[in-house]
Write a structure and sequence with these properties.
Layout: H1 2-22, E1 41-42, E2 56-60, E3 63-68, E4 72-80, E5 85-89, H2 95-101, E6 109-111, E7 116-123, E8 143-148, E9 157-165, E10 181-184, E11 200-201, E12 209-210, E13 216-217, E14 220-221, H3 222-226, H4 229-269
Helix pairs in contact: 1-4
Protein name: RING-type E3 ubiquitin transferase
Subcellular location: Membrane
GO molecular function, one term: ubiquitin protein ligase activity
């Protein structure tokens, strides 16, 4: 009997662990931080199948961050799953340094806003006051400007790079986040969130994504529930109920067996 109980308890713990592994709870790096769920994930806090490759986030000092090899870490302000928008902030307080160095083509992301070609110039002297100098990229010897790609190159300037970016520099706009929004697209998940769904891997083995049908009642989503911390607690409660029911059933069956054995023993004595 003790061995049987041990087996049941061990099996229930195994089921609980596997259930939590297959579940993908939503996490946050801080109380007021953005919800992190598929296709994003935090390594070490969510299983690997809970996120798409290239969508890894990091929690650093209660701050949500994403690292780009071509630039470095950026702060994640918010994540809109409905509009597939990742709003970022540059911890160096220089969004045009991000524009100048970030290469979204090597990532699953692209700029959220429409792009236009601008040329970055580095000049040894200041240009006309009508042109705005990118203060965070300039110093006493280097004066950096963003100009139209058709702009005539002055003798004192050299061209750094011509790239498509959302906005040219303006001193009247925030210098750490304005225009710093990215978007993404996953096959089979177009408008998934706006239709009440949740984009997920169709299997743990592959990378194919999809938007499974969701049973909803007055806006209630089963997938959203199971992808939350509440879903984890429900799984644990269900496993606990299963274990307790099984133990009670075995105990009842054991008592009945004792009664049958005792009755048979009394018959033999007669």
């Amino acid at each position: 009997m003790d061995a049987c109980m041990f087996y049941i308890l061990f099996f229930s713990m195994f089921l609980t662990i596997k259930a939590l592994e297959s579940n993908c709870p939503t996490v946050k790096c801080s109380h007021d931080g953005p919800d992190i769920r598929f296709p994003f994930r935090v390594a070490g806090r969510q299983p690997q199948h809970c996120g798409q490759p290239g969508f890894d986030l990091v929690c650093k000092e209660n701050t949500t961050m994403i690292d780009f090899p071509s630039y470095g870490p950026l702060v994640v302000i918010s994540i809109s799953y409905d509009f597939r928008k990742l709003s970022l902030l540059d911890p160096k307080n220089c969004v045009h340094e991000v524009f100048l160095n970030l290469n979204p083509s090597g990532t699953p992301f692209r700029y959220y806003y429409l792009l236009k070609n601008f040329t970055y110039l580095n000049c040894s002297t200041r240009l006309s006051p009508s042109l705005n100098e990118v203060s965070c990229l300039s110093d006493s010897r280097n004066h950096v400007y963003t100009v139209e790609s058709s702009f005539h190159l002055p003798f004192s300037c050299r061209q750094l790079k011509t790239i498509p970016i959302p906005f040219s520099y303006s001193p009247y706009l925030a210098d750490n986040s304005f225009g710093l929004g990215l978007t993404w697209s996953l096959p089979g998940c177009e408008d998934c969130e706006s239709r009440g769904g949740s984009c997920v891997f169709q299997s743990k083995e592959g990378l194919k994504t999809g938007c499974p049908r969701i049973a909803q009642d007055k806006g209630f989503s089963v997938v959203h529930l199971l992808s939350s911390g509440t879903g984890s607690m429900i799984l644990i409660i269900l496993v606990f109920i299963f274990v307790m029911t099984t133990m009670i059933s075995i105990k009842v069956c054991f008592r009945q067996k004792l009664k049958v054995d005792k009755a048979a023993e009394n018959e033999n004595l007669l």
